[in-house]
Amino acid sequence: MKLQQLKYLIAIRDHNLNVSMASDALYTSQPGVSKQIGLLESELGVRIFERRGKHLHRITPVGEEIIKCAEAMLNIESKIKAISREYLDPTVGTLNIHTTHTIARYLLPKSVTYFTKKYPKISFHLHPVMSASKDQISKGYSDFSIVAHEIGFDKELIALPAYLWTLSLVVPQDHPLAKVSKPTLAQLCQYPILSYESGATGRQVQDEVFQAAGLTPSYYMTVMDAGVIKRYVELGFGIGIIASLVANDNDTPGLVSINLEHLFKPCPAQICFSKSILLQNYMYDFISSFSPHLTKEVIQNVMQQPSQARIDELLVGVELPIY
Predict the structure, then answer these.
(1) Do domains 3-84 and 90-160+269-314 have the same CATH topology?
(2) Most buried among 128, 200, 275, 310, by the most CB within 10 A?
(3) Strand pairing partners for 242?
(4) What is the DSSP string of 304-316?
(5) For the segment 213-264, what is each residue's pLDDT rounded down to a tens digit?
(6) Contact, 128 vs 138, CB < 8 A?
(7) What is the maximum alpha-carbon separation in the chain?
(8) What is the value of pTM for the model shown?
(9) Is the pLDDT of residue 191 over 60?
(10) Which part of the chain is the HTH lysR-type domain (predicted)?
């Protein structure tokens, strides 16, 4: 059994059993990957994948267990390499940030600028997170996810409060609500609304408030990209309710932004990473540059807690940045 074979297993699983796509991602040949998987199955004496003709159909039950163990072994390999790198040169390493377009555009630039100047030898990568699904939270040994929602309990993750974000209304300059400093829920319901998809944090906050007031707003369009919402508001399709960070951007001078904190409570954002990650000094530094309340001491204390409830208790009273 070789570690490279285990990497092939993970890549195939992550690419929906498409060996061609997995081999491309690994910068190797498809026949080579297929051969190594066959050799591994022969060595173990079990089928990891069920096949239909030349194509992989599904992962077998024993294959699921093997892949789970393979992930653990590869994580240990990554940790060993990280320990060695930290010892040889603490200024060298990798940092992967998985986050949304809004966070990457409006909140990360300051931290990225600081980080890349201080750690020019660290390889820094940004990866998109398109939905509010927990499935898109990365759990690698050099990976952090910054998401604009709470992910809930996960036994494999540390999830820390990063900041709070507010909702704002965007309307054309000549719209009846453009000069209303504090519009009511009833006034918002008079117009077609463009906002986030059902299930997204910003939308959940709206739904709860409208429902409590006994009102049923008309959502004309729902989309996760706030920039797209602004564009369609500009075209006259309705009023927009989006993150204030995006609403206040003057990239569309024909629109007016009105803060809705008097109607909707701020939404939580979290920074997440694997519980088994080997946090190096440059990682602590990045986190505290993005969320100043998350100092190295606080994070180390959090990681020693046995449960999410204890973590929540520890962070009670922490003042979060609001955007």
Answers:
(1) no
(2) 200
(3) 168
(4) T-SSHHHHHHHTT
(5) 999 999 999 998 999 999 999 999 999 999 999 999 988 899 999 999 999 9
(6) no
(7) 73
(8) 0.72
(9) yes
(10) 1-60
Put residue 238 in one of left, alpha, beta given phi > 0 → left and psi -120 to 50 → alpha. left
Q: Is 144 in contact with 273 (CB distance < 8 Å)?
A: yes
Phi, psi (rounded to 5 degrees) for 193: -110, 135
Say how far apart CA 200 and CA 159 lie, in whole Å: 18
- CATH says 167-259 is which class? alpha beta
90-160+269-314 has CATH 3.40.190.10 classification? yes
Q: What is the 3-state secondary structure (H, E, C) of 138-150?
A: CCCCCEEEEECCC
Helix/strand/coil for 134: helix
- Note the pLDDT tens digit of each residue in 112-171: 999 999 999 898 889 887 655 555 566 666 789 999 988 877 778 888 999 999 999 999
Taking the C-alpha atoms of residue 103 and residue 269, their distance in angstroms, rounded to an integer, is 10
pLDDT at 132: 53
- How far apart CA 173 and CA 177 sit, in angstroms, is 9
Phi-psi region of 154 (alpha: psi -120 to 50; beta: other; left: phi over 0): beta
Q: Which residue has the tokens 């000069």?
A: 179
In a 3-state reduction of DSSP, which class is residue 23? helix
Name the CATH topology of 3-84. Arc Repressor Mutant, subunit A (1.10.10)
Distance CA 225, CA 196 (A): 8
Token pair of 139 as six digits: 């759990």
Q: Token pair for residue 93?
A: 């390493």
Name the residue ranges covered by the structural domains of the chain: 3-84, 90-160+269-314, 167-259
Q: How far is CA 34 from the centre of its chain?
A: 32
What H or E segment, with its residue span, contains residue 92?
none
Decide: helix, strand or coil at residue 151.
coil
Strands 255-259 and 167-172: antiparallel
